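One chain shown below:
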Amino acid sequence: EPDVTIVRGLKDMVVSEGDDVTFQCQVSHENARDVEWKLQDVALQNNEMNEISVEKGKIHTLTLRKVTEQDIGTITFRVGAHTCRA
């Protein structure tokens, strides 16, 4: 299985309270496994507040819905041994 790397990392975002914010990270290979999103070192799950998806097989997307002050912090995307932060 090829080593999946991060081709395009996350960008820092500024958003107003109550708005949605979307983070994207592009990886080198489709169907990457061992992928994880975190906010403040807490693993995020796909639910009504956090939408996690993959577009075109390589673009991993996290959307935080209706952000609050508690959502301020570092977003981390990890695939295998590679990570990026915003």
